[in-house]
Amino acid sequence: MLQISNLSIRFGEKVIFESIDFSLTQKEIVAIVGKSGVGKTTLLKIIAGLIKANTGWVKLNNEVVERPSSKIGLVFQEYFVFPWLNVERNIMTGMKYGQEKLNKDEAGAKTHKLLQSADLLTDKDKYPSELSGGMLQRVAICRTLAANPSLLLLDEPFGALDLVTRIKLHNLINDIFNLTQQGIIIVTHNINEAVSLADRVILLSGKPAHIAKEWRISKPRKNDSFLKLTDEQDNVLEEILKSLDDGVA
Ligand SMILES: Nc1ncnc2c1ncn2[C@@H]1O[C@H](COP(=O)(O)OP(=O)(O)OP(=O)(O)O)[C@@H](O)[C@H]1O
Ligand SMILES: [Mg+2]
After folding, report:
1. What's the pLDDT score for residue 247?
2. 53/147 Cα distance (integer angstroms)
3. Is 164 left (phi over 0), alpha (psi -120 to 50) or beta?
4. Whole-prediction pTM value?
C-alpha cells in the first residue's frame, strides 16, 4: 500500500537522510527507531505530504503523495484537539473531513464505537480543559481514526503518558488495527514499545541517516504484550540495544 523510493532531504547544506527505500503492506505495523535528531519526524512529515523531499517519491495505493490528505492520519506527541468542542464532537470532526461519507446514524454509531474502545464513553460530554493528558491523547487518536485513513502515522504519541495509560493506548491501537485495514507507522524512543507493537522495526542511523537495520517479528500481536515480551520480541530488543550501543545508530 505504501512505497517509498530513494528519499533524501537536506536543510540548507545539511543532508539529513538519503536513499531511504521501504514499503509497507496493508495490515502491517512498522516501528521506526533511532537517535534524537536522526530525521524520524522529518521522514513522517514527508510521508504525510507536509514537506517535500529533495529526491525520491512516496506512493500510497499507487498514487504519488504530494500534499496532505484524509487518506493519511497523523498523530504527534503534542496532541491537537479543538478546545471549544466536547469529546464526542471532537471525534465527529474527524469524520467530517474523512474518506467515508457517513449519514448521521452511521457517524453516531462509529463515534460510539471509538469512544467505547478508547474508554471515553463516560467522558464524551466533557471539554478538553476538563481532561488529563492521556485522555486528550486518546481523543486525538480517535479523531484521526474517525477519518478512516488508509495509513496512520504516529510520532511518539505516548511519550508523555504514564505506563497504565500507555498500555491502554497500545491496546486501543491493536484493537483498531485488528478491526480495520490500516497500515501503521509508529516512531518511538521506547524500544520495548517498538518490539511489542510492530511487525517490523526499522533503525535509522548515520549522518546522513539511512536504514541501518531492519527486524521482522513474526509473533502475533497481543494486548498487554508490552508487559510480557515473547522470546522473539526479547531477542530483537536486545539486538536493537546492541546496535544503538555499537554506534551503528
Ligand atoms: N524545518 C527545518 N529546518 C531546518 N532543519 C530542520 C528542520 N526540521 C528538522 N530539521 C533538522 O533535521 C534533523 C532531523 O530532525 P527530526 O525532527 O526529523 O529528528 P527526529 O529523529 O524526529 O528527532 P527526535 O527523536 O528528537 O524527535 C535535525 O537536525 C533538525 O534540527
Ligand atoms: Mg521527532
Report:
1. 62
2. 26
3. alpha
4. 0.90
Ligand 1 proximity of 40 Cβ (cutoff 6 Å): yes
Ligand index nearest the alpha carbon of residue 35: 1
Q: Which ligand is nearest to the CA of 9?
A: 1
* pLDDT for residue 181: 67
* Weakly modelled stretches of the chain, pLDDT under 50: none
Extract the C-alpha cell encoding 237: 530488543
pLDDT digits (tens, 9 = 90+) for 15-50: 999 999 999 987 899 999 999 999 999 999 999 999
* Cell, residue 113: 464505537
Alpha-carbon distance values, 52 to 65, 156, 210 (Å):
10, 22, 18
Sorted by sequence, the CB contacts under 8 Å of residue 210 that are 6+ apart come out as 17, 18, 19, 20, 204
CA 35 to ligand 1: nearest atom: 25
CA of 169 to the centre of ligand 1 (A): 26
Within 86-212, residue ranges assigned H as helices are 87-96, 104-117, 133-146, 163-179, 191-197
Atom nearest to 38 CA in ligand 1: 21
Q: Is the CB of 38 under 6 A from ligand 1?
A: yes
Please tell me the residue having the least CA distance from ligand 1 atom 26. Answer: 36
